[in-house]
Known about the structure:
globular, 2 domains, mainly alpha, two-stranded antiparallel sheet, hpI Integrase, Chain A, 3-stranded antiparallel sheet
Amino acid sequence: MTVATPTLIGELRRALRLHHYSPRTEEAYGQWVRRFIRFCDMRHPRELGAGEVTRFLTHLAVDAHVSASTQNQALSAIVFLYRDVLDMRVGWLANLVRAKRSERVPVVLTKQEVRRVFARLKGRGTPALVAAVLYGTGMRLLEALRLRVKDVDFAKNEITVRGGKGDRDRVTMLPERLKGPLLKHLAGARAQHEADLAEGAGWVELPGALASKYPNAGREWAWQWVFPATRIYEDGGTNDGGTGERRRHHLHETLVQRVFKDAIRAAGITKRASCHTLRHSFATHLLDAGYDIRTVQELLGHRNVNTTMIYTHVLNRGGRGVRSPADTL
């Protein structure tokens, strides 16, 4: 019996980076492959087959009670491992059945509920501003947190979202009422950046190979995060493969999520709302205002308009926009 070694995970990471998968996908696939190997008593995947994969997926659904989308992600990780890492073109991969995802109506806040939440967010600093950006632009939480200074165009009232879901760029609006708060926030962030530079820090992680192409770009103001973290970290040592640069990461998503959850609770809202609910509310309120669904699709960055169509089911017009006969009595 061959025991799976940590080298396999390293090969998985290299293959994912070669195919330009996101860091989040790299982390998730690595966890699923480890979990699959542990489930199979640390046997090497080359010794396993369709039976073991099926038992693992059944275990996830029956014993771990994971959702269909989570089960499908685990299957995708295993398929990638066999196809792109181990280069095993085995026929049974194509015969594995993916779980059927249930259709869920997204949670949407009414405009009045949005006002109540933002009233509770007053005085909560940067997390409150991030939440306002989410509702005002329709961005996902990580898309907002990964904004660079250069991506916000105050003259054109536009924000460019770089490397969104599916590694696609798009342009969304910059709400007029957010320009003032954002400019004030950026003024503080720039002062902080200049202080970092004076102390020999001020670096930021750059995408792809830009750091090699433009060695000093990592200290330029244009490449800094719009929402930087409060702490500085060192990117390892040069002997460990790091740069030794003293950087700031962007604000961590859990901080925004925690503040938003507190605001939902304080506002007395019983819906299971999260930061992503602001994106759902953005889309629904635009459609309710009469905007074309194709326009909303482009703003959200949906590949298929059918994904955007889900918001037509939650417009504030009752069930499917039909008036109940009970209201005509």
